[in-house]
Amino acid sequence: MSRVGAARRYDGARTESEKHMLITDIQTVVVDAARAALGTGRRTWLFVEVHTDEGVLGIGEASQSRLDAGVRAAVEEMKPYYVGKDPLGLIEPQRRQWLANPFASRVRYAAVSGIEQALWDIAGKALGQPVHVLLGGAIRERIPLYANLSQATPSRSPDDLATTAAQAVSDGFRAVKIYPFPQPQEVAANRGVALTRDEIVLAEARIRAVRDAIGPDVALHTDWAWTVTPGDAAALADRLLPYDLFWIEEPFATDDPEELAALRRHIRPRLAGGEQLSERLPFRQLFQARALDVVMPDVKWIGGISAFREIAALAAAYDVEVSPHNMSGPVATAACVHLSAVLGNFLALEYGYAGVPWRDELVAGSELVEHGTIPLPTAPGLGIEWDGAAARRHAGE
Questions:
Q1: Cα 133 off chain centre by
Q2: In Å, how far are 64, 109, 275, 374 from 298, measured between CA atoms?
Q3: CB neighbour list of residue 63: distance below 8 Å, 6 or more residues apart
Q4: According to CATH, where is 3.30.390.10 located in the chain?
């Protein structure tokens, strides 16, 4: 029986007259993705492998950098519901089954996301087509990236940020992102929430140095990392107007629709957010409030490729652009590339610039970054060659 014929069966059953691909196992591997020599602290990538009896392996990513043990336990809990079934009919019914529970947590969403990406990978390989073809067809040949400079510049000094930003531009990136304000882990628990004068001065120095280094024609994204109060945000945005920021991302501790909408009405740069959300309702509330110019769903946390596409379609109804949150490993990046290729309201894809030096080992060099873009994949599935042995050599366990 042809693989196309097999794909038309959706009950996952094996009959006497037909043999269908069956899932035999689901495994997880956690990779220590911190650049330890640069002192960035612990960052992990969590990958999900779905194995089949025909030797077709699907790969997904559920990286948390916080709750790996919980995600792995959730995958183990789900495994019996997948093993022994045809993977080509499981993407939508299993996603709905596991996320319909009103008590589904961020951990559950991440586990479902990793498995769901792997099932798309298997479907594409089985049918001999890239995932973007299965999603309806690409509308762009290259996916523009913006370089997140955080892993390459752990000191976050103005001079180091400027040097790294200039190198990213030299490598072909036409947009870069920095974190000008204190990171949450840098803020003492016993201090007030408002930024100090010294923190504001240092933030402006970082932004000024990077703008001077990249020139006027490269987009400068800023992630405020939930550290600014609603009372301070508008004044800070006004202070930073001379540096022509492309967007302000995640200014507040929560994605409060009213507070974000008030800030959006005041500022000139785009306002971006939504990366921590998983369920559909909070996204809809942000869109209805006209609270964002750019929404940033994360394919690892939202329920996978199908769920991401649903949020992107909802955003399009409100004229909101989509830029996937993607401080991720190469597998989630690949999933985002296929989504970015088919979305009409796609803006740009985040990419961790100059991260761990062995990143390419995990996908056998098949993650291509050329002049600040990733070309449209042509290989079946997610279009990457997963090397599980290499991943286990860098395991963070």
A1: 21
A2: 11, 11, 6, 18
A3: 33, 44, 45, 46, 47, 110, 300, 328, 329, 332
A4: 3-129
The 10 Å CB-count burial string (b at 16+, else e) for 150-183 is bbbbeebebebbbbbbbbbbeeebbbbbbbbbbe
**CATH superfamily membership of 3-129:** Enolase-like, N-terminal domain (3.30.390.10)
Record the pTM. Answer: 0.92
Residue with tokens 């507040």: 252
Residues 302-348: tens digit of each pLDDT: 999 999 999 999 999 999 999 999 999 999 999 999 999 999 999 99
What does the pLDDT read at residue 102?
Answer: 77
Is the distance from CB of 181 to CB of 229 less than 8 angstroms? no
Assess if CATH 3.20.20.120 describes domain 133-384. yes
**pLDDT confidence of residue 17:** 43
Rounded Cα distance, 294 and 296, in Å? 7
Query: At residue 371, what is the residue type?
Result: H
pLDDT at 312: 98
Average pLDDT over residues 264-276: 95
**Chain centroid to CA 129:** 23
